[in-house]
Structure formats: C-alpha cells, structure tokens
Amino acid sequence: MLGNLFAGFYQFADVFAFLVLSAAGLAIIFGMMGVINMAHGEFVMCGVYVTAASYHAGLPLPLAQACGTAVAFLIGMVLEAVVIRPLYTRPLDSLLVTWGLSLVVTQGTLVLVGSTFPGIGTPLGGFRVGDYTFSAYRMVLFAAAIGVLGFVWFLFLRTRFGIQARAVMQNPGMAQALGVRRNRVYALSFGVGAGLAGFCGALYAPTMSLIPTMGSSFIVESFVTVVVGGSSVLLGTAPAAVALAVIRTGLNAWYGQIIGQIGLLVAVILIIRVLPDGFTGWLTRRTA
Amino acid sequence: MPPDPILEVAGLRAGYGGTQVLQGVDLSVGRGEIVALVGRNGVGKTTTMRCLIGLVRATAGSIRFAGEEMSRTAADARARRGIGYIPQGRDVFPRMTVQENLAVGELIGASRRQRRADLVYQYFPILAERRRQMAGTLSGGQQQQLAIGRALIGGPELILLDEPSEGVQPNVVQAIVRVLRSIRDDLGTTIVFVEQNLETILTLADRCCVMEKGKVVDAIPPGAVTSENVRRHLLL
Ligand SMILES: Nc1ncnc2c1ncn2[C@@H]1O[C@H](COP(=O)(O)OP(=O)(O)OP(=O)(O)O)[C@@H](O)[C@H]1O
Ligand SMILES: [Mg+2]
C-alpha cells in the first residue's frame, strides 16, 4: 500500500522534475526576450557532454556537473552578444538562426566527437519503500527541480539584477531611461537561460546514453511545458509542470506509456485552446 | 542665454520613420531653473523630451548637458550621467511594487540608494505607506508621484517631466507642484517640464519656451509668466 502510494508520487516527481528542468531555461529566454531558442536542446547537450568529459577527466560528479552548467552559461552569454542581440526586433530570424545553430552543433559534434561518447553510470543506487525499489538519484533530480524554482524566485524577486530584468521585461525603453544597462541584462538573462539548460543536461548526463542528437529528446517536453506555461517560470512553468506531470503519470499508470505521451499532447492542445497565454496569462489576470 | 547653462540644445532634429517631427529645436536652460515647454497638441513636445533622454534618436543638432555632448550617447548612459526622465503617461512598471519601482534606477552604492529612497518617501509620504503595493493598482496621482520619485533615486541634476498634471486630481497636482519646487530649492535640481494646464505652469515655471511645428518659436521670460501671456499658446 505504502509502496504503491510512493510509486505514484515517485513517477509524478520524475516527470515533474524532467519538465521543470528541461523547460526553465527555455522559459526564461522566451519570457525575457521573446526569443524562441531552437538551440535549447543543444545547450542541454552541451551540459551533458561537458559533464561527461570532466567526469572522465577525473572530476567528482558534482564538480563535473558544475562545469557543464558553467560552460553552457558562458556560451550563452557570448552567443547572445554575437548572434542574438542584432535580431531582437526580428523574432522569426532569431528562431531561424538558433535552429541553424542547433543543426551545426549536432552535426559538428558528430564529426568531432563521433556518434557515441562514454557515459556515466547512475550514482547513489536505490532505496526501498514497501515492496518496491526506487532510484535515489531520481529523488535528487526532483530536489534539483525544486531548487531551480527557488533559484529563479530568488534571482528575479530578491536581487537587483532581478528587479532590473523585470523592469526591462515590462518596459525596455523606460528601464533604459532610468539607467539600466539593457544589453547587460539581456546577456545575463540569456546566459542564465542557457546555464539552466546546461544544468538540466548536467543532471541527466548520468541517466542517458550520449549521442549527438540527444538534445532533441528534451525538446518536446520543454517546448510543451513553455507553451502551456507561458512566459513566466514561477507562474507558468511550475504550474504547467505540475498539471502535465499529473496527467502524464495518471495516463501512464492506467493506459501505458504510448497513451501517456499522446494524452499529454492532447491535453496541451486543450489547455492552450482555453488559456492562450498559458498559465502565466491566466494567473496574472487573476492576481492583477 | 541663461548664465551657467546646464542644458544647451541647438538645431535638434528628429522624427519617426520618414516623418520629421523636430525641425531644429533650440533651447538653453540654466542650472537650477524651472522651465516650461508649452505648445499645442502634436507640435513635438514629447518628442523633444524623448530625444533629450535618448529614446528617440537625434538625426541632427546637438544636446550639450553639463558641457558634454550627449546626442550620440545611449539613454541609459545619459540617465547615469544625471538626467532624470518622467514620461507622459508615467510608465510606472505596473507588475512591480512601489518599492521595486524605486529600486530600478541605477545608482552605485547601497547605502546611498537607501538614503535616496528615504528622501523620496519624505517628499511623497503616500509612497512610503504603499511601498508594497503593485504600481499598476495606484491612482493616477500616486503613479505620477512614483514616477517622479523613481527619477529622483538616481540623484539627477536635470529632470525632464512630461505633462505631470495629466490625469491627476487638481489637489494632488498642487501637492506635486509644491514638492517639485522644494526639490529645486533644496537640491538645486533643474527642471524642464511640458504642461498644458495653465494653473500648473503659472505656479511652477520660472519661464516658458513656446513650441510650434517642431521648433521653439517664442519665449516668455521670468516675470512675464502670466495667465494672458501663457493662455494663447495653450489653445488646442
Ligand atoms: N511613435 C510615433 N510614431 C509616429 N509618429 C509619432 C509617434 N509619436 C508621435 N508621433 C507624431 O509626432 C508628432 C509630435 O508628437 P508629440 O507626441 O511629440 O507631440 P506633443 O507636443 O507631445 O503632443 P501632446 O500635447 O498631444 O502630448 C505628432 O504628429 C504625432 O502624431
Ligand atoms: Mg506629449
């Protein structure tokens, strides 16, 4: 009984963590700058590969994961300044450029690194509840997802950078007229978005086989969560992840994986039919 | 020519897309002066203000602020250099609290920031009472006070203020005018403001500059800011 109950929670937590971790970076970049980052999956992959390479070079796993996150953050900052910044007034072009970039990175990785890369075994082993055994690392991922939400809350609501970032988001011209260095805010926001994508990759690195197209395995869930959530991480991504995880877990349990996947996409279509601005739009209307 | 000018604008041209709005604005403002920019609807008063802070690009002419050429400088750098801007319609950040709105402005050093915030709360006590309220839920007059306070945080030498009385109750306008005068008297801050409301102009302005079709065409010198002199420039 207890084992069954916990199994339900465990599956929910697993899906929730995956949705939050894979979508947070995408949501920040979309919410702050209106840029749809088609290279999001490649930032995740960057996190995975850098983590794996650092780990094989002898770093302990948590440090290797920090490296994966940091490299994605730095690449994001540079990319923003060089490629994305000239395209803020041209959202379709920025979509195209990031898509092109994702193709280049995927193929480049295939050429430079090869079609496989030695993976990392999942750490921490398992624990028992009732009659079942569960992976402890999955619980770490769940905690990390909660941690990411806490980090985003702290960064955007409790720091000066966050206040300036929200001001830029609400009225870029007015923020600039108050002395806010808009470009710096954009570069940092893009860096944070890319860094969170890298963090996602770093966390899932020990759970997956490493192939150059692995970025795409994060793409569907991350886009779906952002579409349902809307532009805000806290008012959008988080509730969307809860809702989608409940739907997915329920359908998986009763009808199996395939129906779970299809049901998730049907639910998404229904939700955006009812809430065109996602949860963000709905919640800000109710609280305003 | 005022003595010790803090702002000298010459031959300023600007517009939107293909249409020229400013056709060569000339304007000179002395340190510590309060100057009203008056003129009928659509003559380019707001465009002038936006051009001075740098939100509209100058296509020709010069803007010298405290002796420094600014017409090519980015808006954020002008603000940090000491120009405060309060737009027409106020543009407070609606989904941020009063306190957060005040914290947006760039200023180095946390202790100085707190002292500036205290000063703002002293000038506008209503903001202190409502510091945790979302700015979007404030009344027009409260938003105007917040917008002025927000510009004061950076410690500006020059304040650009576009139609402070628009959509604000008359008694609140009077209170705002009193505060603006004491800001000038206490801090020596120069104020250039656009205004259509006769009462506000008469009680606040030292002198007026009159705009017509994208140019400053006339001036009302100190001592001559009377109701009949001003009124004929305000007809809509
Ligand atoms: N964003 C814009 N794009 C295109 N044209 C604009 C824009 N803003 C203003 N204009 C035009 O520029 C001219 C001057 O406008 P401006 O807002 O500077 O006038 P104003 O003197 O401030 O008027 P008001 O008294 O109504 O505030 C007007 O003809 C207006 O239609
Ligand atoms: Mg105007």
From TrEMBL, chain A:
Keywords, in A-Z order: Amino-acid transport, Cell membrane, Membrane, Transmembrane, Transmembrane helix, Transport
Q: Establish whether keyword Signal is in the entry.
A: no
Q: InterPro entries, alphabetically?
A: ABC_transp_permease (IPR001851), BCAA_transport_permease (IPR052157)
Its recorded name reads Branched-chain amino acid ABC transporter permease
Which Pfam families does the UniProt record give? Answer: BPD_transp_2
Q: Which CDD domains match?
A: TM_PBP1_LivH_like
Q: How does it sit in the membrane?
A: Multi-pass membrane protein
State if Electron transport is listed as a keyword.
no
What residues form the membrane-spanning segments?
A: 12-32, 63-84, 96-117, 137-157, 185-204, 224-247, 254-275
Per UniProt, subcellular location reads as:
Cell membrane
- Would you identify the family this protein belongs to, as annotated? Belongs to the binding-protein-dependent transport system permease family. LivHM subfamily.
